[in-house]
Amino acid sequence: MISRDERRPGADHPAAAVEQAFREERAAVLATLIRHVGDFQLAEDAVQDAFASAVATWERDGVPANRGAWLTTTARRKAIDRLRRTRSLADRADRLAELARIDAQEHRPDDAEAEESAVADDRLRLIFTCCHPALALPARVALTLRMLGGLTAGEIARAFLVTEPTMRQRISRAKRKIADAHIPYRVPPDDQLPDRLHGVLMVVYLIFNEGYDATEGDRLVRGELCSEAIRLGRLLAKLMPDDPEVLGLLALMLLHDSRRGARVDASGRYVPLDQQDRSRWDQGRIREGVRTLERALPLMRPGPYQLQAAIAAAHTEPETDWRQIAELYGALGRITPSAVVEVNRAVAVAFAHGAAAGLGLLAPLLDDAALQSYQPLHAAHAELLRRAGDEAGAARAYERAIDLSSNAVERTELEHRLARLRT
Description:
Layout (H helix, E strand, L loop, with lengths): L13 H24 L2 H22 L5 H20 L2 H16 L7 H19 L6 H11 L5 H8 L3 H18 L11 H20 L3 E2 L5 H17 L4 H14 L25 H14 L7 H12 L6 H14 L3 H15 L1 H12 L8 H14 L2 H13 L2 E2 H15 L1
Parallel strand pairs: 1-2
Helix pairs in contact: 1-2, 1-3, 1-5, 2-3, 3-4, 6-7, 6-8, 6-9, 7-8, 9-10, 9-11, 10-11, 11-12, 11-13, 12-13, 13-14, 14-15, 15-16, 15-17, 16-17, 17-18, 18-19
């Protein structure tokens, strides 16, 4: 909805304030509105209407002090308008009465802290609602990424290696399933949590991944998504403090996020992990991540998020033990085999045992027709070919990776490496 422009005004300008609010407030406003209206599509449309109103109203009247509250109130009123226009009298009466009651309540400034807590709970309720076992796992994850993560259908499609129309259909079917099955909007009782936890953790992790390594756009990192995922991870850790995979995921996100400030230089250019200025790493995040992982390990139920957190922790050591990292990726691949894990294992093996060993692991992936458009595979292939001395092959692989890159920062770095190779 909010387009980026190279001539973006300052943060105090109404247009910039709307764009910032869209990034930072949308998920909270949408989660709260779904609780109020009980209809995913109605809530999404009303929130879109509210942001459209903000563009004109904030330009005329100024930016409100509490943008989230303004947007929530406006979206609720837009939902009332839509209900009056589109629903039959019998269908809309009860819902309109409930929305009118909510809208009539006076907002008290001293309730701000309690309201923020309720918003956080709404986000958690939304995750568990979307991750109901009545939905197929891919549909659960896709719907939650769309509704809570704010990812586009195209971004989600790339994460699942499917086409955008396929993903749109999957999300629409999931919304209808929730409405038709009358799935309640709440955190389930304790005995039902395990049935939903796998999907919930996957959703939070994918939200973080999109924030940490943006699929497209002019930013490498979408910090608001990283922060949102970590906040949700902390809520889950509070809800389920003895689940080792909940702790493992939180530790993983904290350890990765500790490097956020060092991943681009002052000019916005990408900086590889082995060249980052470690003084810019967030030591508080690292300590919290390591402590969280140490809480998970004694529970003696190793899982994929704990293994990934152990890999991230190994990268924070003064000397990187690539052999250990390669072994951890091997263990991770045995638990959750995937192309993502194998590409990362190949890179780790190349650091530990030489480029040829890493290329051997990439070979079967490169022959897989389903992975021909998987950009990280071709970027890793190019880098390992370069290290092996195959400059012509590396150039072709770099060109392929560049063609598949939607993120401007990432694409610029690959173009720089290709140019350096050719000169």
